[in-house]
Amino acid sequence: MSPDKALFDNIYSFTIFNDEIIISDNDRLRKYNNITNKVTTIAGGGYSNNYIENTDATKTRLSAKRANIRYNYNHENQELYISIASDEYVGIIKTNNTGNLFEKTGITSNDYRYEGPFHIDTNGDMYFVPPQFSYCLMFYQNSTNQVNFLFCDDDFTRTAHIYSIVMGENRQLFFAISDVAIQQGFIKQYLFDEYRARIIVGLGNPGYNNDWNGAQTNICPLGLHYDFNSKVFYFTDVIDDVNIIRKYDPQLDEVTTLAGYNGYNSVDDGVPSSIVKINYPRDVFYYNGEIYFSDNDSRHGSRIRKITKDGLVYTVVGSYSVDYVGMEAPDINCMAMVGAIYKNNYYFIDSARNDGSLMRVNSTTNKIEEVISKTGIDKDIPNLVVVKDKFYYANKTSIISYDMINSNYWTYTPLTLIANIKAFAFDFSTEEIYVSECGKNGSSDIYHSRISKITTDGNYITVANLDNDRCAISMIVNGSNIYYIETLFSQNDINSTIVKLGKDGSNKQVIAGEGNSDNDYISAKDTKLYGPTSLVMTLREEIMFVEPSKNRIRKIKKDGQVLTLTMTGNELHNPNWIGLYDNTLLLTNQVELFVSDITLKCYGIKQMIQQIDNGVCIGSNQCSCSSGWKGDSSCSKVSCENQNSCSGHGTCTGPNQCTCQSGWKQSSDCSTISCEELGNCNDKGICVSSNVCQCISGFRGSNDCKQFSCDGVNNCTNGRGSCIGPNKCDCPIEYTGNDCGTLVYNCYGKLGNDSTACSGNGLCIGIDSCKCNSGVYGLQCDFIPEIKYSTKVSKYSTILFTTNIKSFNLNNNNFSYKWSQISGTNTLDLNTISIAGTDKIDFGIKANDNNLIQGETYGLQLNITRSEILNGKLTVVSLPISFTINKSPIINNYNLLDASTNNPIQSSVVAGETNIKAIITNAQDAEGKAIEYAFGYFTSTNERVYLSYFSQSKNSATFKLPLFISGKAKVFLAIRDELLDTDEKIVELTVTDPTANLNDNQLNNYIQNLVNNTNSNDGHIPIEQLDIATSLLNKPVSNPNDPNIKQQREELRNTIVNSLVASTSSQNDTSTVLNILSSVTQNTQELKLETAITALQLTLNITNNNNQQQQDKIVALTSQLINSVLTTSSTNMQVSEIIKNILDSISKSIVQSLISGQSQLIQTNNIKTYLVKDTVDSLAKSLNTTVISQLGISNLNLPIDALKTLFKNNGIDIANPVALGVNVVPNSIYNYLGQNITSPIFRINLFLNDGTSLNITNLLVPIEFEMTIISSVTGNNKCWYYNEKVKALRLDGVETVVINSNRVKCRVYHLTDFTTAPQIVSPSISVAKSTRVIGSTSKVHVSGANINVMSWLTIILCSLISVL
């Protein structure tokens, strides 16, 4: 074939030698000779799967179903090596330079399918890419016939592919590796001495693809060629979807683009290389001063082009578009998948021609004719029907008809369509069209499937609904019935059946495909179908169908039996469609079919099919019986004469089909002995007589060779080990070797006496066989899960079960979890009572409303499934736990006494004057455990003030009540047991005001006396006395603007705050102190700056000792004090640092209290805190984006893979949970910087589970979020970060994307405080280019202590393991 008429499917690679171009074209290897100007096939294109020596290569079928055929041309030896990966052969074959015959190479393996690029040197050694690891190089050594891994380039990305391998001078090995999805790649050299690869080209920033030096140009290379003369690399580059040809000169370290610049669309020849458009150039070759490259256009065909010395581009071989009209049908190559027969002419659609052309093969001339062009039909149409000079076809949503006489279209689009049209059939008797719909409707995840019809008056009527997971993929209509192939929607070769259905939707019945037999002459219902396609009905009302995977055509006879048809022409190869040429011929013994064939790209094969019915009528009541039948008058009896009458060892049960007796089933005529009753000797022996076996070495047994024997290995050294296989011993722990004659085993690369064998958590008891210690799991004993929980719990408190996983193969595992109930008197709805669901690593049960019964014991179980990423091996661990619900204590008798008289208090006391004593006279614990007692009262906001915290004393200290606005007070008397279950009694009293008749000065003096009256024991003012003073101080005064009165009250508030600092002696006082502190600082008009700062410092001290019960209260108090500071004076650095430390401590406390899948939100008018915990992979899913948006940011994007890489580099196991926290505070806290800040302050940081902070400085992928500009300040707003070291805002390491004048996107590569402000220049502010900053290492810096960091926008990563 001439080069301008040659059509290529997909040119994967090519090479040039002696004016010949050898081309890999999908499933064929072809050769273009520049001298003869001809294209010929070297190998492939045939039907044979035989690859043995001296096989004609052109008669062989090269399978392309796994990958494009790969080859390597050894220029020195002039031999062509071809990679074969078929079902019959795996390995490398070669063609010699004489006769084009195959020769064996010895390079064969069932473990490695050589489907990627490979290179064979003059020694016969091969470097190749295995399909399992596309980013790895392997090495086959010809002299030893050994295969080994050389190197895996997983530092780049595990989704990358090595596309080309070339050998340079002095056996230097180079390869091109790219990840097309992320548009980045490299050219690298493998360093044999150092077992690693170094980058030659490709260290540029992503997206920077201009010509530059090798270290600064980003590339995505596919093809690679090294020219030994000029010592220059030529490569194809698909960077940023701009397909270009480039070269790299190592001596100049310079990358130059040669052809294919962006923005040009010329596909013509003779144009300058600077304006040519190139389509996916897969390979490149430099030859005689010209650069050759492949140009692959999926619609118009592939070709090889070249850049001439004068810079012009020409096509060498292949055609961009070939008009095959008028050509002989067998010579064409076109995109046709289905066809139709009409008036003995074959019609088909070529979707690549003229926007979809209807073509016809004239049966008289056997030449191609174009019927109509520009139909707009693509190659995915379900089927094609031609009737009455009209052809019908379907797209996904419409049925379309074209009238070939009148040249007009008719389109019918059903308005009630529920899914895509999968098939349709024409009813010739009524001219109605039946339609099959299958698939999803819109965004729904539910599959829909039904059969409908289009009536002659245009109505669309449902005939029958199919099961939603089923689909009718091929239909015919005959008489009153519809026949169709029904299969699973997602996979049409599983559970397929052929169904008969009345045209009114009634009487549905399966007529084929319900059994498992593959035999002929049985009921079609009992047969198994193998992905059937393309039904046709003959005039005999027999149904024919195709089974592509079996390469056969079958039919269902009128009597319901199934029969495989015999071809008299060529062997079929994956047929997909059949059509009848002339139905009348089916009345004879032979019929012509048109059969599609995968080896022919467009035109099918006209096949003669032998019907093989019982016989032919040759006279009145006289039959000429077919082979396998007998009976002169009817041919109704089966015959086995051609099977030697079953050799006397079987029964004739079908035409030439014998059912052999036991022991004679090896051959079809029952003449060969067999041992099927002995399991065919279990493949471990030879059948020497009918059901008699002779065992091979390593097996024994009286008849069936089923038992193992170890006679060949000295009976495992005289019984030292056990025989567990043919000549295979299971040795005790102290021995190894084939015969257990050698001491010590090896487990996964380490000897059994090595303390680190089996990860140090088990014993090496056999080769790669570890016996793990209790509580340790995994093949290498490298997986230790542990659940932390209490066996006795309270139903009125949150119940937590936290799991810690220690995995020695860090980050090479995927985990999944499931909690379930395994025991208990009542069934618990775990999903309802759980805090965060049952599929997290941790599990929590809500307090109070949880259906738990006091005194009962419940059992839970955690199932952990670990999948090892590299080998896919699973470890499933079930961890059962049990816990008992505590019984609460009970108060029986109690009293309130007037301490002055020791008489019971009736109902009224005087605030600040009546001395009260509370007594619990009788209480008991249901389980006889110790009880603690507490006493106090409730504030006006229902907060508890403890006068006597839980202790062994049944009596409270003498106390006085403060003044209440309502005039009522509630005193509580409480008890608790060891599990903190409580009971309490509440007494309500009337409280009168002793200062009701005092003026402002008298009231201040009264309060002054209270705060000056210290306790004689410790010199501190009693806590309840400070509460009384605060309650009186909050009373309205008659003259609040009097300077003297105001000054007195400011001093009183300052005294109370300082007294609170002195009186706070233990964590038990924190709740009461916080209540009083909140109350005394609520009036900002009477609060001095130093008082507010003291209160903030006290809040910080309480926060650092927080018991995780006061988080909301601390945040609210901090918010209140911020208001006091901001209204009193400009914020200074001291206040800013205190606020940071408070919120850091709060974040740490919240993280420690959360379990996986749980979140917590705290917000006030100016502080907002949101935290959520989950594993790294699930963190983004658990994040509530609505809450995030409410906090003032949006589109928060976390680089999960980059974070996981950081953890891996620092020994942190990603199986354990992490937490994300978001906090927001006003930008006024940085007023002391003197800069116009235009949005709130945000911060991003990472923490471990124990609250240890991490200092992240070199993220490879940025964290992104958007902020709104809330202040109107002139200037170009940028994203800034706060530098803790220099105490200033900086721009370096932060990228800003301006969305509009009110909104920006920030990209940050390190973690600290972030905000927005106009870009200005001042001595205290560093202005740097907004460029990604990457440090000298790519590892996270981990600090072992709690770093004081700001929690404005806080990402808190918590792990249940310690930092390695």
Provide a brief overview of the structure:
The chain is mostly beta strands and 1364 residues long.
N→C terminal distance? 68 Å
The pLDDT mean sits at 79
Largest sheet: 5 strands, antiparallel
Choose one word for the global shape.
Answer: globular
Radius of gyration: 43 Å
State the strand order across the main sheet.
Answer: 21-25-24-23-22
Low-confidence stretches: 64-68, 86-90, 582-592, 597-612, 1321-1364
| Count of alpha and pi helical runs | 12
Task: Please tell me about this protein's structure.
The protein has 1364 residues and is mainly β. Helices cover 11% and strands 38% of the residues. The protein contains 12 helices and 96 strands. A 5-stranded antiparallel sheet has the order 21-25-24-23-22, with no helix packed on it. A hairpin with a 5-residue loop joins β62 (735-736) and β63. It is globular, with a radius of gyration of 43 Å.
Show the helix and strand layout.
Blueprint: E1 11-17, E2 20-25, E3 28-33, E4 38-43, E5 71-74, E6 79-85, E7 90-95, E8 102-108, E9 118-120, E10 126-128, E11 136-141, E12 146-152, E13 161-167, E14 173-179, E15 184-191, E16 196-201, E17 221-227, E18 232-237, E19 244-249, E20 254-259, E21 271-272, E22 284-287, E23 290-297, E24 301-307, E25 312-317, E26 339-342, E27 345-350, E28 357-361, E29 368-372, E30 384-387, E31 390-394, E32 399-403, E33 408-412, E34 420-427, E35 432-440, E36 447-454, E37 460-465, E38 470-478, E39 481-488, E40 497-502, E41 509-512, E42 533-537, E43 543-547, E44 552-556, E45 562-564, E46 566-567, E47 578-580, E48 590-595, E49 605-610, E50 615-619, E51 622-625, E52 629-630, E53 637-638, E54 650-654, E55 657-660, E56 685-689, E57 692-695, E58 699-700, E59 707-708, H1 714-719, E60 722-725, E61 728-730, E62 735-736, E63 742-743, E64 746-747, E65 750-751, E66 762-766, E67 769-772, E68 783-788, E69 792-793, E70 799-807, E71 813-823, H2 830-833, E72 843-845, E73 857-868, E74 874-885, E75 890-898, E76 903-904, E77 908-910, E78 916-924, ...
Parallel strand pairs: 69-74, 77-82
Antiparallel strand pairs: 1-2, 2-3, 3-4, 5-6, 6-7, 7-8, 9-10, 10-11, 11-12, 13-14, 14-15, 15-16, 17-18, 18-19, 19-20, 21-25, 22-23, 23-24, 24-25, 26-27, 27-28, 28-29, 30-31, 31-32, 32-33, 34-35, 35-36, 36-37, 38-39, 39-40, 40-41, 42-43, 43-44, 44-45, 46-49, 47-48, 48-49, 50-51, 52-53, 54-55, ...
Helix pairs in contact: 3-4, 3-5, 4-5, 4-6, 5-6, 5-7, 6-8, 7-8, 7-9, 8-9
